[in-house]
Give the backbone structure.
Amino acid sequence: MVRVRFAPSPTGFFHIGSARTALFNWLYAKHTSGCFILRIEDTDEARNTQESLEVLIKGLRWLGLDWDEGPEVGGPYGPYFQSQREALYEEFIERLKQTGRLYEQEGALYFKVSGKPQLIDDLVRGPVERLEEKDFVVVRSNGKPVFHFVNVVDDITMNITHVIRGEDHLSNTSKHLELFKAFGATLPRFAHIPLILKSTGPGKMSKRDEGALIEEYTQRGFLPEALRNYLCLLGWSPGQDREKLPIETLIQLFDLPDINPNNAHFDHKKLAHLNGEYVRELPLDAFVKACKPALEPQGLVCSDAAYLREVLGLAQEKVRAIEEVPHLVRPLLSDDFIINPESRELVFKKGDPKARIQDFLAYLPQIQTFDATHLEAALQSLAQSKNLEPSHFLQPLRLALTGMHMGLSFYRLMALLGQQKVQKRLEKF
RNA sequence: GUCCCCAUCGUCUAGCCUGGUCCAGGACACAGGAUUUUCAUUCCUGUAACACGGGUUCGAAUCCCGUUGGGGACGCCA
């Protein structure tokens, strides 16, 4: 039975790299029908708050990474907070004392290293040998055990079979191996996954980089399926030129040895593209639901659900992100929109927009049915009668009706707006 | 500085383990074109890579060594 864990420490934010580590652990657990454990490493009392924990839990839930054991769900190997496992750590310190590998210096307990090179049989990188040269602290002078120690004790007592974590821990692993062996514990398999590097510039992605935090994607209305799918592609490939796949397929295909050992730069554009694909193929009702949190803070509400549905249906074909929707549909949900100065300049640069709008207003009574098909035909014949192209009318009308020089499918937009509003806005322009 | 990891188009990657089918495939981005009488979407086309140097071999992107470059770790943080 495969048992993997994601062991974040609550810091107040959820880093994209941590999310990817969680995802790979989760994928592997699902792939092997194993157990995915969430363990909270909250020994750094200063940073640990309830809010910090919430950020983590919300982020994981949002990404759909449910855990089999851990906070809120419990499990037979609990507690799942390191802050609640102190008795256990004391017990293991005693065991270590008995091996004679512990000594005190300046109030801290040091662990005496073996002096032998430690062989990490890494599932991603193959065999890696590293010698831990210096004895290291396991219990601080204030009595608190350090990360390396508690991490290993928890992995032993939780029966973790595979440790899947970032490559930044690879050099720590020799310490961990020494500890595992000192306890006579069965070694877990290790899989050190590549790091996510900044899109531009040197180094790994830090919390200050754009797109580094899961919270940002939640707020901006990214679809979790899209982000999750993108993250799968960073350091791993489903092969056969496939990229966008349902999560069930991803789970089936995923395996540790197939993880690419080299670091990957984060590519915002590729994520945006993938998100666009997911957005556009969302069932309309789901799209409407996804849009509402973006619409409402901007005062864009609509009591007519059927109308809203049609409006958003128009928008869905156009956008690659939910965050683009409010601006696009504003003129259809509210009379309170501004004429974009740049669009105005662009439209006024060619032809005589005001005259075209007057032409159209004069023609308006002749349009019997105010729907997309008839409007298109109407514009055609109007243009013909004036010896002009329909495009001469299109942009001025769009500008007057929406304030933009581009946007939603025009005739359908006009039909949705209705004759009255169209007339009013054109007269006012 | 010491130790560890990594190295295919600008970016993510397939191929590497089990050398020949690869003058290296896909995707994003970029450029051009078609469609949409506008923009977006969609479709087509194009530009573009095996870091370098040595081996091994009849043959190397694939195996070995070195160089260079990138990344990470070196805390009484996690």
Notes: The radius of gyration of chain A is 30 Å. DSSP finds 18 helices and eleven strands in chain A. Residues 16-31 of chain A form the longest helix (16 residues).
